[in-house]
Specification:
This protein has about 325 residues and is mostly helical. It is about 60% helix and about 0% strand.
Length: about 325
């Protein structure tokens, strides 16, 4: 029965990882990292001398790590793996590109109509040249706009004010003949995402997976020695200052296992090499973020310090990071 139970848990973990082609292996790596950190806590004779995770508590942490993203079963794939600002089931930049081709064709058609209207006029050569020049200028503007939109859509950098000004200028335009808007309201909203690729609504959907994880896991009849698994797994996005989600727990209500899981999840996400929506951080950049978060009382400072000083980050990096990421 225990072997069947373990196999069932691992099967769920694999299915969640495989749900998104972009995050395969995340759960396995987070679990591995959790057990490495927990092992160092048990070995420590200084700061953690009074804390020792029992065999059952280690099992709770391991299973909670394997199950921590269970709630993502309900999260749409195109949100989990959204790699550009305009991506839904497909990248809508291609729709905009087709629209811009229509605008360019429309400019050429209007120019041809104007030239036809002056065929019988004197001085028509100079006027036709002027019409052609005007058409070429409008097409150049459209091509520059399309290049800007394409760059903004796929850029992994935070949006600056210059880009926002460009978007607002484009958004205010509409096709002169058909009154077709250059950008739809939803396209404009997505392109204006300052950082990352998710809108606030999509972020709420992503964040909801932690609440759903605990809800789903609470439906299972866990034995008493493993009864903390739902709360540990559900707390992997909580912060010690109460600013996390979904329950806004503070340090008094986040146990050691949940703190370890939170740190492992953050570390893996920052330096993961398989995320389409961001460039993986180097090891030094990842460690810098962890230190900053610990200084700001968001994650456990002592665990972060032990994680670094014990060399766990280097052991993990040697197995899972690209050589050019390992700059420590």
């Amino acid at each position: 029965m225990k072997a069947l139970f373990e196999a069932f848990i691992k099967a769920i973990a694999v299915s969640i990882d495989e749900k998104s082609k972009h995050t395969g292996g995340h759960i396995q790596r987070v679990t591995e990292l959790c057990m490495m950190i927990a092992g160092k806590i048990n070995e420590d004779t200084t700061v953690f001398r009074d804390i020792h995770l029992s065999e059952d508590q280690m099992d709770e942490l391991r299973i909670a790590a394997l199950m921590h993203d269970t709630g993502k079963i309900t999260t749409p794939d195109h949100i989990i793996g959204k790699s550009s600002r305009l991506e839904t089931v497909f990248d809508r930049i291609e729709l905009i590109r087709m629209r811009w081709e229509y605008f360019k064709a429309n400019q050429k058609l209007m120019a041809a109509q104007k030239k036809l209207s002056i065929l019988d006029q004197t001085g028509k050569q100079e006027e036709m040249a002027r019409i052609d020049a005007l058409c070429a200028r409008e097409i150049e503007i459209l091509e520059n706009e399309m290049a800007a939109l394409s760059h903004i859509n796929s850029s992994r950098e935070a949006l600056d004010q210059e880009s926002i000004d460009v978007l607002e200028a484009i958004n205010e335009k509409s096709c002169k003949t058909s009154k077709l808007p250059y950008l739809t309201e939803d396209e404009f909203e997505n392109l204006c995402i300052i950082k990352g690729t998710l809108t606030s609504k999509e972020r709420e959907i992503i964040n909801g997976h932690a609440r759903l994880t605990e809800k789903i896991l609470n439906k299972l009849p866990w034995p008493k020695k493993l009864s903390n698994i739902p709360s540990i797994a559900g707390a992997h996005h909580e912060k010690l200052d109460g600013s996390g989600y979904p329950l806004h727990l503070d340090r008094e209500n986040i146990n050691t296992q949940a703190r370890v899981l939170a740190i492992a999840d953050i570390f893996e996400a920052l330096c993961a090499v398989d995320r389409p929506y961001k460039k993986p951080m180097t090891l030094s950049e990842t460690i810098k973020v962890l230190r900053q978060m610990s200084e700001n009382q968001l994650i456990d400072k002592d665990i972060v310090k032990l994680f670094i000083e014990s060399g766990v980050h280097m052991d993990y990096a040697g197995r899972h990071l690209f050589p050019d990421q390992i700059d420590l």
